[in-house]
Amino acid sequence: MDGADAPLARPGDDSVRRAATALDSAAVVVDPELPKERRDALARATGKLAPYRGPVPEPTLPVNGARGCALLVGVAFVFAVLGVAADNPVFASMMIMLAASGIPFVLAGRPNSREIAAARAPVTEHRRYVLPSSDIDADHWKLWKRAVDARNRIAGAGVVSEGRIDSVQIAEVLPHRLWDIAQRLARLAEVRAKQREILGDVAPDDPDVAQAVARQLRAQELTLADVARRVSDLENVAGLVDAADLAARKEAIVRELNALDDSHAELLAGIGDTDLDANVTQRLADDATAVIDQARRAVEQANEAALTLAPPEDDQPAG
């Protein structure tokens, strides 16, 4: 599953490992506004999901494991009635006891309302999920992969898992961003397919239909341009997170190297006059401070970029 709604890491949270898991660009993308149990149900029903623009299959019910027990209980009751009719109370009592002992198994094996809702989720939640491999046009597949790659870079960054970037903000907004992009591309593929179906063997530049086709193509181009802008915004944040991650790794290296400064100062002690002056330790510390400041600035920039990832409904195209 996508995981568009895959949880990102919070400091001290065991979701760190899950956050670093790369999302497959072909994985189903689910509307993050759905309740968690519905999202989980869709993740388990990947083979039963219907294409975004495809026909919706008939809803199916989960397997009723109580049918066999119910049949045996019914047979036992029939034999109990026959035992009473045959004036054989001992046999009738045995059958009644057998039937009664089977009733709890019948009740336990029946699917509950939650299981039924989960089994019907591919139908009841149709168009609340996208199957990229079938719902996104091949022409736009590279654009979708760019979005997924940006998501993976953000989710897998060490500064995110460590909480140095606003992980809560990213965890809240990033799934919505990915769903918004997937849904727009799926809807675009749907209208393009319908347009081709309506045109049939009539050329799009036929004088009688060219004006209507041109108007619709313009709408498609504007939609695609807006999606591309959203992907670019995501990539911009990913780039800043990458830079912050690299700077943070360098900072960690410098801190470890600093721990060796005293040992190096001891090496220099007592070797007489050298080109290395006596304040070598201080100079090394100054260099390290510059790297640490650079890492801090990179993290701050990435945090500022993360805050610009407002929920999609609040995001307006640039004028």
Number of strands: 2
Could you give the distance between the termini? 35 Å
**Rounded to an integer, what's the Rg over CA atoms?**
31 Å
Strands in their spatial order, largest beta sheet: 1-2
Strand percentage: under 5%
- Number of continuous helical runs: 12
- Helix-strand pattern: HEHHHHEHHHHHHH
Contiguous runs where pLDDT drops below 50 for at least 5 residues: 5-19
Mean pLDDT over the residues? 75
What is the domain tally?
2
* Content-based structural category: mainly alpha
Which percent bin holds the helix content?
55-70%
Biggest β-sheet description? 2 strands, antiparallel
Per the principal axes of the C-alpha atoms, what is the gross shape? flat
Explain the layout of strands and helices.
Blueprint: H1 16-19, E1 29-30, H2 36-44, H3 67-85, H4 89-109, H5 113-124, E2 129-130, H6 132-135, H7 141-155, H8 158-161, H9 167-199, H10 210-258, H11 261-268, H12 280-307
Helix pairs in contact: 2-5, 3-4, 7-9, 7-10, 9-10, 10-12, 11-12
Features:
319 residues; mainly alpha; 12 helices; two-stranded antiparallel ribbon
Brief write-up:
With 319 residues, this protein is an all-alpha fold.
Description:
There is one protein chain. The protein has 319 residues and is an all-alpha fold. The protein has 2 domains: 16-27 and 129-314, no CATH class; 67-110. The chain has 12 helices and 2 strands. It has helices spanning 16-19, 36-44, 67-85, 89-109, 113-124, 132-135, 141-155, 158-161, 167-199, 210-258, 261-268, 280-307, and strands at 29-30, 129-130. Strands 1-2 form a two-stranded antiparallel ribbon. The radius of gyration is 31 Å and the shape is flat. Mean pLDDT is 75; it is low at 5-19.
